[in-house]
Amino acid sequence: MPYLNGGIFDLHELEKKHADIKIPDEAFERIFAFFNEFQWHLDDRPLANDKEINPDVLGYIFEKYINQKQMGAYYTKEDITGYIARNTIVPFLLDAAARACPDAFRPDGPVWRLLREEPDKYIFEPVRHGVDRPLPPEIAAGLDNVAERKDWNRLAPIGFALLTETWREHVARRQRCLDIRQKLTAGEIHTANDLITYNLDVCQFAEDVLDTCDDPKLLHAFWQALEKVSILDPTCGSGAFLFAALNILQLLYDACLDRMEACLDDAGGTGGAASAQLADFRNILDQLERHPSRNYFIFKSIIVQNLYGVDIMREAVEICKLRLFLKLVSQVQLVEQLEPLPDIDFNIRAGNTLVGFATLAEVEKTLQGTLGFTRDEFEEIVAAAKRADEEFRLFRQLQTEFGKGAVDFSEVKGRLRTHLDALRFRLDYYLAGEYGKDTTSPTEVGPWILSHQPFHWFAEFYGTMNRGGFDVIIGNPPYVEYRRSKVDYVVTGFATADCKNLYAFAVERSFNLLREEGRVGLIIPLASISIDDTHSLRTFLLQEAGLLLHASFGFRPAKLFEGVNLRLTVLLAGKKGSSRAAVWSSGYLLWCQEERPHLFCKVSPLRVEQTDVLGRLPKPVASLGISILSKVLSNTELLGSLVSKTGNAVLHYHRSPLYWIRAMDFEPYFQSATKTRSVHHLRDVYLRDSQATGFVGCVLNSSLFYWWFVNVGNCRNLTGEDVRGIPIGRPSAATLSKSNTLFQQLMNDYRQNSKTTIRYNCEYQTFFPVSQNQSSISSIRCWPNTTALPPRKWISSSTTKSSIA
Asked: Residue 281, exposed/middle/buried by CB under 10 A (0-12, 13-18, 19+)?
């Protein structure tokens, strides 16, 4: 049997504490019998039935049934992890290569020439679908004449449209595709940030840069960036994001090695001006040839050199490591190709991302306090961290050297563990004192360590942090409201503390762990950009980020996390490179399940200049939405000027609108044995005088206000600030009079199109914005995200006044 190594086969903590433990084989018989009922695969082939299992299933089971319930974390599908990983890792690598070879990355240089020569190759196929076919005359007539767009809300035929796409959506996608194609051909797209903001196929582009590279210096620079890039998921769970990174890096490693071989063949030796790079290529390929399996060598190199993860749940860490090992073993076809598994116990770690010293500077700050470390103690800590890092680098080097045995690994690993344990002990005890524990009492410090699980980033990853931090940070942090009743530990020292949610702290920590040129990609709740409680997080992001892109998604009709009703935002950011963050938004997207295969290919961000509307980041859809936002904000008079805290005139609005907003001057019928009013659904707004009732009522029921709510609000709860804050202008006397007439017509229409519903032991009045003889459900489809208009596709063609007010 070959020597396999790997921390997965190391002694368990229980075995170390209880060396004489004995478990009879019979105890495992039922477990093995259960496992034998399944068919196990190492690769990621599609599973035919419920009795087949591959490594991905292990991660799904953990995230879905364990982590979600306990930690507010959710299983992240491959389309999300892929979108985030490719738009952070590849741009970082391109920027790193550009710093080493600036001439190759000039706007008119050889790298960006690829975009000019074959623009369609880098526009995703779903974006290009049907755009080169001539539009039917009845559709084309509406391009320049809005009055001719009567057919634009119909479904477009499959030759033109993607699934569920209307003509309006097809035209918007067509126009964006043609605009991007023109910019590519004209050479206007020539930075890594451009690739992200225009949502181009960055992986294909990077592969082509390598495949066509005839400059050994450029190839060598890209290889060096690839070998050294450090990718962290600070809340890694079972490793979904690390797997996405692994798949991207594997393609780029492979392309680099292929091109090295071609360069050596073309050169016919190692002479010439690029002799140093060519000699290095030969050494790299010689090392590769000593390994029985090329794919095994590539995956092993990536796992050891590039991937890092931390999670507070030890079970998650163990499953993450197991999945990486299984991915590695799946590359082997013959037993003779099997090399020792890497030991990644020091890459994938258990600990609390939010508690502990992140940087050496944080430790140095303690010198200023009366109870802090002394200068001598600080120097000892630095020296101990350096010694641990030296052992870590030696330990990692052994992972990729062929022919090393058990003794080599165990000796170095033992020394490394000893150094880290001693360093961790000193830091844990000091930090416990900062939390008010008696550091002379193990009975106080021990339970604190168990509950808080502090993780000292500068010590655990000293080499990485000493170089400035991690290059790329990606992940899906836990969405847990920070209350002592919900978590077992106390978090201190965060600028985002008043957000009172762990995901906000994780975002801040990610930037603190990121190097100056690094990139961040996270999926977090939509509340992060759109509610008052998270204002400090937005302030932090605008201060720290040079690029800030957010793509937001609803949960109806379809949802990103299976079975979870969460409005989510994918956040892509780069460290600040200028004095002001460049903010891009894709709008708030509602989508159908059939669209999922091409959902992220169609993300269409646009630059947003208004980065503070009611203290929030707006999310307009398309250039028309940006134009409307600019026009609305040009008004100086807010609707709040007509609102007062008390008064005889009052409107009642539904506080949790989904697809339309209803505001009335009468309180809907409600009858319950325990309540006198549906307090969870209705809110009141008092008006300055009765004359303002009709005007404010028309505004709140209008398409414009729904647009305002979606673009500026949190798309869940309609707040008083949303109502008061819309800049609507000062109404004239004629407008007030006309508004009152229209509003009364609308109120009569509401009453006529309502009925009493009995549910949850309550009777209440429900309203229908379509005729009673029409089925509103049958007309439900996806809101046309490519327009700035309200969701008219949710309403049948036979509408009442209430649906068009």
From this structure: buried
Token readout for 358 is 């992140």
Burial of 434 (0-12, 13-18, 19+ CB in 10 A): middle
DSSP one-letter code for 602: T
90: helix, strand or coil? helix
* Nearby residues of 788 by Cβ (< 8 Å), 6 or more positions away: 620, 621, 622, 624, 625, 627, 628, 707
Whether the Cβ atoms of residue 33 and residue 26 lie closer than 8 Å to each other: no
Q: Which two tokens stand for residue 567?
A: 């409005």
Task: Kindly report, residue by residue over 404-419, the tens digit of the pLDDT.
Answer: 556 667 788 888 989 9
Which helix (H) or strand (E) element contains residue 309?
strand 307-311
User: Over the range 27-38, which residues count as b (16 or more CB within 10 Å of their CB) and which as e?
Assistant: eeeeeeeeeeee
pLDDT bracket for residue 776 (50, 70, 90): very low
Where residue 300 falls (left for φ over 0; alpha for ψ -120 to 50; beta otherwise) is alpha
Average pLDDT, the chain: 88
Residue type, 406: A
Q: What is the pLDDT of residue 777?
A: 31
Q: What is the pTM of this model?
A: 0.92
Residue 118 scores a pLDDT above 80? yes
Higher pLDDT, 396 or 399: 396
Q: Retrieve residue 603's tokens.
A: 């993300």
Does pLDDT of 788 surpass 60?
A: no
Please write the tens of the pLDDT for every residue from 639-695.
Answer: 999 998 887 799 999 888 878 899 999 998 888 888 777 656 789 999 988 889 999
C-beta of residue 495 within 8 angstroms of C-beta of residue 540: yes
Instruction: Tell me what pLDDT residue 622 has.
Output: 86
Beta bridge partner(s), residue 757: 764
Contact indicator for 7, 344 with CB cutoff of 8 Å: yes
Cα separation, 581 vs 183, in Å, equals 23
* CA 257, 261, 262, 268 torsion-angle sign: positive
Residues with Cβ within 8 Å of residue 686, at least 6 apart in sequence: 643, 644, 645, 646, 647, 649, 650
DSSP class per residue in 746-772 = HHHHHHHTEEEEEETTEEEEEE-SB-T
Question: Residue 289 is inside which H or E element, if any?
Answer: helix 275-289
Q: How far is CA 105 from CA 97, 196, 202, 207, in A?
A: 9, 16, 15, 15
Of how many residues is the chain composed? 805
Using omega within 30 degrees of 0 as the cis cutoff, is the peptide bond preceding 557 cis?
Answer: yes
Strand-strand pairing, 606-607 and 582-589: antiparallel
Give pLDDT tens digits for 528-571.
999 999 999 999 999 999 999 999 999 989 999 988 899 999 99
| CA distance linking residue 125 with residue 201, whole number of Å | 10
Parallel, antiparallel, or unpaired for β 682-687 and 650-654? antiparallel
Q: Which residues pair with 643 in a beta bridge?
A: 687
Going by C-alpha positions, the residue among 467, 542, 470 that lies closest to residue 509 is: 470
How many angstroms from the chain centroid is the CA of residue 294? Answer: 32
Q: What is the 3-state secondary structure (H, E, C) of 213-254?
A: CCCHHHHHHHHHHHHHCCEEECCCCCCHHHHHHHHHHHHHHH
At CA 207, angle to CA 110 and CA 240, rounded to 5? 140
- Residue 747 carries which side chain, given as an amino acid letter? M
Q: Is 697 helix (H, G, I), strand (E, B) or coil?
A: helix
The span from the CA of 665 to the CA of 693, in Å, is: 8
What is residue 519's DSSP assignment?
E
Q: Give CA–CA dist 677/94, Å, rounded.
A: 59
Query: Quick check: helix, strand or coil at residue 678?
Result: coil
